Automatic annotation (TrEMBL), chains A, B:
GO terms for biological process: L-histidine biosynthetic process. NCBIfam families: hisC (TIGR01141). The lineage of its organism: Bacteria, Fusobacteriati, Fusobacteriota, Fusobacteriia, Fusobacteriales. It holds the Pfam family Aminotran_1_2. This is Histidinol-phosphate aminotransferase.
Length: 357, 357
C-alpha cells in the first residue's frame, strides 16, 4: 500500500491470470493456449521482415491489418465489411477494457452471467459500474429470456467460459433484438472451436459488438492481438478512446504477423479441426472414467467427478506434472477447466487421472 | 457519433500523433524517431528466437526484462534497484495513461507547463482531472518555484517537449522536496540526449516516479516498450492497475528484444552520442541562417526564424520532401520542432532551408 495510490487502486481486486510455474515442465492445460504453433508462414514472415524499420513508429491506425480482417469476414460471411468496422487492440483483454471505457458511463448497469470470464467483475469495479449477475441455470446454461429488455449493457462470452457451453446464433439474436437501445458485447474468444459467430449480426443490428482474439484459435497468446467488429460508428468510438489513451498500441511485428495469420486460412482450419477432434476423443474417455463433462464448443472442457473433489484432483494433477485450472468459487468449486492440448497431452492427462481416481 | 458512445467519448478531443504520410518518401524529421536502426544484437535475437513458442502466453509479470532494467540502473547509478521498482508498459504513453489511472483521483488537480507534451491535457480530460497549466517563462523555461507547495500532482517532461530545454537534476530535486506529499512524475522520453535523469532521486524520495521509453534513444518506436522507475510501493500500485486492465501487455518478442537492447550498451551510447553531435552541428548552421534555436538536450530542436513564418516554412519543407512538426498553438505558432536525423538528413534539411529562406 502507498499513500499515493488512488481510492480505486487501494480497494480493487486485480484479475489473477492462470499460473505459469517455472519449477518444472508441465503438461500445460490451464490457460487455454493452443497446443499448435503459429503457421510456418507467420514464423517466416517475422524472420524475413526488415527489422531495421523498428526504429520507426508503426501505423497508429493499424490500417493494413484491419483491412485484412475486414476482407476475411467479407469473404467468410459473404457480406461487406470495411476496415472502419474493425478495431485492433493489444490482446482482447485490452479491447474489452477499452470497450468498458468507451460505451459505459460510471454508474451504468452491466449484465453478465454469474459464472463467466472473471475479468468482467474487475472491469465493472475499475470503471464504477453496477454489475448485475444473472445466474446460469442448473445445467450452467445462459437463459436468454433473462436478458430481454434489461436496463443496462450486456456482455456475454460465447462460448461461455469456464463452462464451455455456447449459445446458438438465433439465441444471441433474440437478446440483441430485445435490447435495441443497449449495446450487446459478444466476447468470442473461443468461438472458432465450434460455436456460431455473431459477426453475422453486426451488419443487421447497430447494437452488436463482437470481440475476438488471436490468442486461442490463432496460436498467438505470446503475441498479443485482439479485435472488435461492429458498426463504423461504434468502432469510431473505440478509436477516439484509443487515441486518447495510447496511440501506438500495436507494434510493427505484430501487425505483419497478424496479417500473415489471416492469410493462412488452411492452417487455421486444420489446427482448429484437430483440436475439436481431440476434444471429442477426450470427452469420450472422461465420461468412461465417470466424469460429467459439459457440452463444449471451446478449446477447453469443464468437468466434474462425483467421487473425487475437484480441488484435490487439481493439486494431485499438478503434483503429477499436469496443470489444469481450478476456480474456488461458488457453484463451480467441484469443477476443473481443462484446456485441449495435443492427442499426446490428453493421453498423459487421462493416464494420470486413471492413477489418481 | 453513435448513441452508444459514453459522455466522455462524445466530448473528448483525442491526441493527434505526428503525420505518417504515405504519398512519397520524406526526410522524416517530425516524430522524433531515431535515425539509427536498433542494435544488430536485437535484430539477431529476434531472428534466432523460437517463434513456435508464440503459442504460449508471455510472462505477465515481465520479470526478466524488469530485472535487466533494474540491474542496468543499479550499475549506472551505483545504487541498488530491484525489479519491483520497475514497471514495463506497451510504450511510455501506456505507462503514462496507467499512472494517471493509478495515482490520481477524479477531480484532483494536476500541474504541468502550458507548453509540454500534448497528451497530458487529453489524459486530464479523459480521467476528469483539473489541469493547472503553469506558463513557461518568456524564454520557454520552466520556473521551478512556481511548482513549490502546490495542491496537486505534478508531471514534468524533462527535457521538455517540444521546447527541448532540460531542467537540471537539482532543480527537479527542489520541486520534489517542496511537495513531499504529492507524486512528482518525470517523463524522461528524451533524457538520454543530454539531460540528467531523475532516476537518481528515486531511492532518496518516495514521491518520485520516472518514466522512460525505448522509442527514442533505443531506436524502438516500432516495438512499443516503455517503463517507469519508482519505489516498490508505487510500482506495486501500477501493477495492481495493470492486472485490473490488461494482464499480458508485453509480447514475447518485445520482452526478448528489450532485454537485448539493454545489454548492448555500447551501441546505445554510440548512437546517442552521434545524434548529439549531429544536433550541435545542425544548431550551428541554423544560427548562421538566422534561426533562433532553443538550447536542446533532446533528439529534436525547437526553432524559429524572424523573417519567415513557421507555418509557411512547414508547408514549404513538406512540399520539398522534408517533414517537420508544426503546432498551431498559442505562443509556439512561429516555431518548428525538428527531429535530429543522420548527418545526411540534416544536410538535406539545411539545403532546403537555404532555398526557401
Amino acid at each position: 500500500m502507498s499513500k499515493f495510490w488512488n481510492d480505486k487502486i487501494k480497494e480493487i481486486e486485480p484479475y489473477v491470470p492462470g499460473e505459469q510455474p517455472k519449477d518444472k515442465k508441465y503438461v500445460k492445460l490451464n490457460t487455454n493456449e493452443n497446443p499448435y504453433s503459429p503457421s510456418e508462414k507467420v514464423v517466416e514472415k517475422i524472420k524475413s521482415m526488415n527489422l531495421k524499420d523498428l526504429k520507426l513508429y508503426p501505423d497508429p491506425d493499424v490500417s493494413k491489418l484491419r483491412e485484412v480482417i475486414a476482407d476475411y469476414f467479407s469473404k467468410k460471411i459473404s457480406e461487406k465489411f470495411t476496415k472502419e468496422q474493425i478495431f485492433v487492440g493489444n490482446g482482447s483483454d485490452e479491447v474489452l477494457a477499452l470497450i468498458f471505457m468507451t460505451f459505459f458511463n460510471k454508474g451504468d448497469k452491466v449484465y453478465y452471467p454469474d459464472i463467466t470470464y472473471s475479468f468482467y467483475p474487475v472491469y465493472a469495479d475499475l470503471f464504477d459500474l453496477k454489475e448485475v449477475k444473472i445466474p446460469l441455470n442448473e445445467n450452467f446454461k445462459i437463459e436468454i429470456n433473462k436478458y430481454f429488455g434489461v436496463d443496462g449493457h450486456i456482455i456475454i462470452t460465447n462460448p461461455n467460459a469456464p463452462t464451455s457451453i455456447a449459445l446458438k446464433l438465433n439465441e444471441i439474436e433474440k437478446i440483441v433484438k430485445n435490447n435495441p437501445t443497449q449495446l450487446i458485447v459478444i466476447d468470442e474468444a473461443y468461438v472458432d472451436f465450434g460455436a456460431e459467430s455473431s459477426v453475422k449480426l453486426v451488419n443487421k443490428y447497430d447494437n452488436v459488438l463482437v470481440v475476438q482474439t488471436f490468442s486461442k484459435s490463432r496460436s498467438f497468446a505470446g503475441m498479443r492481438l485482439g479485435y472488435a467488429i461492429g458498426s463504423e460508428n461504434i468502432i469510431e468510438g473505440l478509436n477516439r478512446l484509443k487515441f486518447s489513451f495510447n496511440s501506438y498500441t500495436i507494434d510493427r511485428i505484430s501487425i505483419e504477423a497478424g496479417i500473415e495469420s489471416f492469410k493462412d486460412d488452411d492452417y487455421f482450419v486444420k489446427t482448429n479441426t484437430k483440436i475439436i477432434e481431440t476434444r471429442e476423443k477426450t470427452v469420450k474417455k472422461l465420461k468412461e472414467l465417470g466424469f460429467k463433462v459439459l457440452n463444449s464448443s471451446a478449446n477447453f472442457i469443464f468437468i466434474s467427478h462425483n467421487k473425487v473433489f475437484a480441488g484435490d484432483l487439481y493439486k494431485n494433477l499438478k503434483d503429477n506434472g499436469v496443470l489444469v485450472r481450478y476456480f474456488a468459487k461458488d457453484r463451480i468449486d467441484n469443477y476443473l477447466r481443462v484446456t485441449i492440448g495435443t492427442d499426446e497431452d490428453m493421453e498423459i492427462f487421462i493416464e494420470k487421472l486413471n492413477k489418481l481416481l
